Structure formats: structure tokens, C-alpha cells
């Protein structure tokens, strides 16, 4: 078993005798740097923290991830983490270090057509000071890290393995083992239940669609989570060009984030009343594919003209949001890799946030800042009504113009939440990395798990207090 001691070093720390050698090698303690040294019988890995005066959970998470990533090729590694050197003095800061180690050490590899290995480095905190705080924070961080990596596994699996029903069954087994109530609604029942959008998008594939419903707690739910689950998106008959299909196994990253977050309920928020609704389809061209110009009837009774089959996410989310509203939640949040426009506007590090309620939008923004899954609010624009209205049906799925597509997609979705406070997170940018970087492996990022977990863990009274003090 390989073992390494991990210590944090800041740019503004006092310089020890070994600093000259570090500086000569270019190590200054800047955030995102790492260095490995031999100290007697110990291998020591140094994580650059930046300036301690600017330390926060996001910086601690990134520093820990970077140093863990530097050992990504080492098997059977235990990272002995000196929390004192990181300056982690709160539960949230300790959790951020543990999360970062789990994130940076993650690796995923297919070992056969349907078999794979995944995991991360084992890590233990080197105890100091407030042991109870450390135990609580470390346990929270490990749980969050495991949930994020669970979502990454789901995104990284080949679409031939993770078909809609395979996703539903895999997620159901996991969530039932955590004590949650799970129901899989399959193809015939979807048709009989009026889920015309889900059925239409899924009917081109030989792998049938499904809807996953998850319930925790009793009574009307405080929160409903909806995650887009397109296990592979070819664009349907409105076929994507080949380069655009290469990462389309990740079009179920929203669904994966919801599963990851719900898996944390027993750990972070036992007893909370939460529901999850996850539509699962494979969008392929085939003899039964929905055609541009077809009209479908949705779960809430509205009709929708499908003009572009590559704008499928809003079609299945319309049905899923209607179903979520039927549970009578206080709040609905959906998360989806929905539009290229969100990535073009915000890049790879922010999700686009659109909401029909200012207080809820503030909560999501604050949860994003605390969790590291950051969002940036964009407008819900009623003046775009003409872009979602059809001449032959109630709505259309294609706006007809290239501008404001984040807002026009959200405006359509807003019609299916029944007036309930609702927030939409378009994660097209941060959901997937085509190449590895210093902080993490290529593939699924697990974006959204920490954001949703933060929102789940908030009580209503905590959320109100937080909003009133910021």
C-alpha cells in the first residue's frame, strides 16, 4: 500500500529552509500548484493554497483536487491529509478538502464491453485540534465526494450499457438501498399515462423510454428535483453532425446529478420530504422516430409541435415537470444539459440559472457559491412568447431564431410547473470535460450534485435566515 502525506502550503506562509529548492522548481504555493518531496521515510505532497487571506471552500477543494490528481496513475494509494496545514477550521472547510481529494483522485476505465472500474484515492485526515469537527466535516466531504463520483460513473458509462431502462434499474437499486421509495414507469404505462413527449422522443430507439420517480419522507414535498436523462442524443431525425455526437452519452448528466444528490438524503437530510422525477430516453433515428412537424399531447393536456427533434430535452422535461407539479411540492428545480447557448454564454464553469421566483433564484445562487457548483442568473423573458407558440398546436419545441435560446427554452419549461416556484439550471457547459486537466479526469464532472445537495440540506428556516443576512 502506497502512502503519501498531504500538506497545504500558501503563497504567504513563512518560508522554511527547503523553500529555495521549491522556488527553483517553480513552486510558490499558488492555487493549482502541487509538488512531491521525500522527507526521510515519508513522501510528502504539497498543495498550493494561494493566499490564506483569500482562502475559502472553493479554493480548498481545488487545492486538494490538484494534489490528488497528481497521483492519478498510482494504485492503492492512501493520502494522509494534514488538515492543520490547510487551515481547515470549520466543518465546511474540512468537507471541502475531503471532497477535493475524492474529486481529483477519481479515475474511470472500461475493462470490457460492459464492465468497468472506477474509484478514487483512499484518504484519512491527520487529526488535530477539534476532533469532532473534523470527523463530521470529513464524513460529510467523503459522502459528497462519493455522490459526485457516482454521477460521474453514470455519465462515463457507454450509452450501449446505460440505456434508459438500465439507468432506471441501476438508480432504483441504489436509491432503494438508501431507504428511498422508487417507482419505474415503463413504456406502455408512459403511453397510457399521457406522457406524449417522453414517448415521442424515445420511440425511434429499440431501447424503450422510462420515467423514474423517487420519494423520500412523508407529506407534501418541500422540494421536487427533475433531471434530464437522454442517455444518448443523436439528434433523432434532425441528426447532429458527427463531432457533436461524440460527447452525447453525457446528455443524461442532469439525471445523474439528481440521482447523486438523492443518494445523500439519508446522510445529509434524513426525514426531509423530497421527490425526484427523471425522464429517460434514447434519441435515435429509426423507423418509428418522431418527425419534424408531428404534434404530441403532453402530460398536462397541452399540445406540442415538434419541429426539430434535436430540441428533445424540453419535450421530455415538459412531461416530467408536469408530473413533478402533481406531487404538490413547495419548490421545483430542474437541471439539464439543455442548450449550447448556455455554454457559449458562460463557458465551462457556470450553469445558466433561470427562475420564476426571485427568492428561489437567490437561494440557488447562494447554494452554488457555497457548493462550488456555480450558477449565473439569466432572464425569463415573457416577450419571447412568439418563440414558443405554434400555429397548429399550443406550443412548439423550436424557437425559429438563434438568439436568447437559454431564455426561450426556459420560458417553454415554465409553462409546465403549475405556478409553483421553480428554477431551471442549464448545465451544458460544466457537465462534461472532453479532456483531463490538472484538477480532474476527462468525462463527467458530477456538476450539480453538490448544488442540489446544498439545497436539500437547507431547511426552510435556514434558507430564510441565510437570505436575510446576505
TrEMBL record:
Q: GO terms for molecular function, please?
A: aminopeptidase activity
Q: Which domain of life is it from?
A: Bacteria
Q: Which residues does the UniProt record annotate as the domain Peptidase M17 leucyl aminopeptidase N-terminal?
A: 23-108
InterPro entries per the UniProt record, alphabetical = Leucine_aapep/pepB, Macro_dom-like, Peptidase_M17_C, Peptidase_M17_N
**Entries under Pfam families matching the protein:** Peptidase_M17, Peptidase_M17_N
By its UniProt entry, which SUPFAM superfamilies does this protein fall under?
Answer: Macro domain-like, Zn-dependent exopeptidases
- Is the keyword Protease in the record? yes
Going by the UniProt record, its keywords in alphabetical order are: Aminopeptidase, Hydrolase, Protease
Does the entry feature the keyword Hydrolase, yes or no? yes
Residue intervals of the Cytosol aminopeptidase domain:
149-452
Q: What does this protein do?
A: Presumably involved in the processing and regular turnover of intracellular proteins. Catalyzes the removal of unsubstituted N-terminal amino acids from various peptides.
Q: Which family does it belong to?
A: Belongs to the peptidase M17 family.
UniProt-recorded name of the protein = Probable cytosol aminopeptidase
What is the organism field in this record?
Microbacterium istanbulense
Question: What does UniProt list as this organism's lineage?
Answer: Bacteria, Bacillati, Actinomycetota, Actinomycetes, Micrococcales
